[in-house]
């Protein structure tokens, strides 16, 4: 198959799957998962074929404005790898979802929305310019809104979907302004023109505006607040869009625009990444919801990737993006396996609360080992993929920031790594060790799910080992001191958590206060007040002004009509009538006796004498 046709087919398949599923409706509910899986597997196979041949691009003129805007897609090593990542994880998620969503109504909608999301992500990955990226960027936002709010009967789900959508719009405004700036500065939106330019304030502003898109999509401070709430969506959705793909789009964007990020812009990027990384880890420490711990962990890991770009190591950030996609998807699906097993065994309790779990390694051995391996990768333990990517980020960060104030960034990353090991060990102990703590469900009723759920867990756990990415388990950029520091802080986090929670002990810990109330006070409430004031201004002032203006125009129209009728038309009519009257009088006088002429003459003489003497 010709590479151009191959590329078009890969991009077309998920949208075709979306249309097929959404138009077929409930009659394909039972087979919707298999239909979606077939489309994703077909795309995965074609992408493998595409990557094995010569890389190419496709573009055509879309419209012209001073110069041609091209609708184009490019195929390079990064885009091929991202395609494989998105389609592979999407395939596993859909396989998992066939069992996980078996009892849900409207499964055709769920799998159709997944296909729409996959197509949108492929568009972001393949876009060869910022305009095309922005189009698919917005489409990803729409599809994620639909997936987060899939259980629209739940108020929490609809609220979370709206929150995610609106918070992302804030960042997207900045992204759009940055795209305008790129057009003004370079005269084109193609990635090819985004080469290193002389840094100045204007270029710094452009870079930071584009970075706003990353802040929102990749849940960076201060726009991170939507991601934990998005856990209201189905757990497989969290694995796909909130761990492996959508949230990684912001890091992918940074890698594409890296050549135009000035040193000042990179300093801001690194600072935001460090703040997000540390904040996400601290919040994860006190979570009791199995998914929210992983959500805050995702926030923290995305901060690490952004920090890596900020210190000048985009390749290390992309490496961690790939390793993180596998082990975090594995963790989310493992948590989904736990939730599904508890839901399937009984109802009437919160199946996501780790305080009523414990000892599940005995009942869910496959889930336990998958979770253990993926958690070890997240903590950055040796022989895991997370160790390789974290070690590369730390090595690059320490090397690039040595002898400058920026050394604080890798130091913060080390602290965050220790916190990560602590909260993951804590959750691991509470869920799988100790005694069963759920009084509403007998332990005997809990059991492992079918192969549809276990297969993705095994594959993702296998992909979280170091040997998948490097034959050298220590990595290609091994630094003894950096590796020793990384392992030491991870061991310290593991040891402290083991000492505190060994045996699955549950302590009475309160969750940290969220930033949402502050946002409500300083942002949401003022915006709502401004909206109400605008509505009042529109309803009372502007509408009344329009009504008064209309009434005034009616009055003026009547006045104009009267003036036209009685003045403009009346004066000539009156003059004509007066002329006729005078003419008539003159005619009557001229037709009378001689004494009439004498009387007129005398009257005329009298008038002249009076006027002269006056």
From TrEMBL:
Membrane-crossing residue ranges in chain numbering: 6-24, 31-51, 71-96, 108-126, 132-152, 164-183, 203-227, 239-259, 265-285, 294-313, 366-387, 407-429, 481-501, 594-612
The keyword Transmembrane belongs to this UniProt entry's keyword annotation: yes
Keywords: Membrane, Transmembrane, Transmembrane helix
GO molecular-function terms, A-Z: NADH dehydrogenase (ubiquinone) activity; NADH dehydrogenase activity
Chief place of localization: membrane
Annotated localization: Endomembrane system; Membrane
Gene3D superfamilies: 1.20.5.2700
Record domain NADH:quinone oxidoreductase/Mrp antiporter transmembrane: where: 127-405
A GO CC term attached to the entry: endomembrane system
Bilayer topology term: Multi-pass membrane protein
Biological process according to GO: ATP synthesis coupled electron transport; electron transport coupled proton transport
Keyword Amino-acid biosynthesis set for record: no
InterPro entries in the cross-refs: NADHpl_OxRdtase_5_subgr, ND/Mrp_TM, NU5C-like, Proton_antipo_N
Domain NADH-Ubiquinone oxidoreductase (complex I) chain 5 N-terminal as annotated: residue spans: 62-111
One of the Pfam families matching this protein, by short name: Proton_antipo_N
This protein's name: NADH dehydrogenase subunit L
Organism for this UniProt entry: Siphonobacter aquaeclarae
């Amino acid at each position: 198959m010709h590479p151009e046709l191959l590329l078009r087919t890969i991009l077309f398949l998920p949208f075709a799957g979306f249309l097929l599923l959404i138009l077929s409706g409930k009659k394909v509910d039972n087979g919707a998962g298999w239909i979606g899986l077939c489309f994703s597997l077909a795309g995965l196979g074609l992408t493998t074929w595409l990557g094995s041949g010569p890389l190419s691009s496709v573009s055509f003129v879309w419209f012209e404005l001073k110069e041609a805007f091209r609708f184009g897609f490019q195929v390079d090593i990064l885009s091929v790898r991202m395609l494989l990542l998105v389609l592979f994880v999407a395939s596993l998620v859909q396989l998992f979802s066939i069992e996980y969503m078996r009892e849900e109504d409207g499964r055709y909608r769920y799998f159709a929305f997944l296909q729409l999301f996959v197509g949108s992500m492929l568009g972001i990955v393949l876009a060869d310019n910022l305009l095309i990226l922005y189009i698919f960027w917005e489409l990803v936002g729409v599809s994620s809104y639909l997936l987060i709010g899939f259980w629209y009967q739940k108020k929490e789900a609809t609220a979370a979907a709206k929150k995610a959508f609106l918070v992302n719009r804030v960042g997207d405004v900045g992204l759009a302004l940055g795209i305008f700036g790129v057009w003004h500065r370079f005269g084109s939106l193609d990635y090819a023109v985004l080469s290193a330019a002389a840094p100045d304030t204007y270029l710094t502003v452009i870079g930071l505006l584009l970075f706003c898109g990353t802040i929102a999509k990749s849940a960076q401070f201060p726009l991170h607040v939507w991601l934990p709430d998005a856990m209201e969506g189905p757990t497989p959705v969290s694995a796909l869009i909130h761990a492996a793909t959508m949230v990684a789009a912001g890091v992918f964007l940074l890698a594409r625009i890296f050549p135009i990020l000035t040193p000042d812009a990179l300093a801001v990027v690194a600072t935001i990444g460090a703040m997000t990384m540390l904040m996400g880890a601290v919040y994860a420490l006190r979570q009791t919801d199995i998914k929210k711990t992983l959500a805050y962990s995702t926030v923290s890991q995305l901060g690490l990737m952004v920090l890596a770009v900020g210190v000048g190591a985009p390749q290390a950030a992309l490496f961690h993006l790939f390793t993180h996609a596998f082990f975090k998807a594995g963790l989310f699906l493992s948590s989904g396996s736990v939730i599904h097993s508890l839901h399937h065994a009984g109802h009437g309790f919160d199946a996501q609360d780790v305080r009523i779990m414990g000892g599940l390694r005995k009942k869910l051995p496959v889930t336990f080992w998958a979770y253990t391996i993926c958690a070890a990768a997240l903590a950055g333990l040796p022989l895991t993929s997370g160790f390789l990517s974290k070690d590369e980020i730390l090595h690059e960060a320490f090397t690039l920031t040595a002898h400058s104030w920026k050394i604080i960034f890798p130091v913060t990353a080390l602290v965050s790594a220790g916190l990560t090991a602590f909260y993951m060990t804590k959750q691991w102990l509470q869920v799988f060790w100790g005694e069963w703590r759920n009084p509403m469900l007998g332990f005997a009723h809990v059991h492992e799910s079918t192969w549809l759920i276990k297969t993705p867990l095994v594959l993702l756990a296998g992909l979280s080992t170091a040997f998948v990415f490097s034959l050298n388990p220590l990595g290609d950029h091994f630094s003894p001191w950096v590796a020793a520091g990384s392992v030491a802080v991870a061991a310290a986090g593991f040891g402290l958590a083991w000492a505190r929670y060994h045996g699955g002990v549950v302590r009475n810990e309160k969750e940290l206060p969220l930033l949402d109330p502050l946002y409500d006070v300083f942002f949401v409430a003022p915006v709502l007040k401004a909206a109400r004031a605008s509505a009042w201004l529109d309803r009372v002032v502007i509408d009344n002004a329009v009504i008064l203006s209309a009434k005034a125009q009616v009055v003026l129209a009547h006045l104009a009509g009267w003036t036209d009728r009685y003045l403009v038309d009346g004066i000539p009519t009156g003059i004509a009538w007066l002329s006729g009257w005078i003419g008539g009088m003159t005619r009557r006088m001229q037709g009378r006796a001689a004494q009439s002429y004498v009387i007129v003459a005398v009257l005329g003489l009298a008038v002249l004498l009076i006027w002269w003497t006056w």
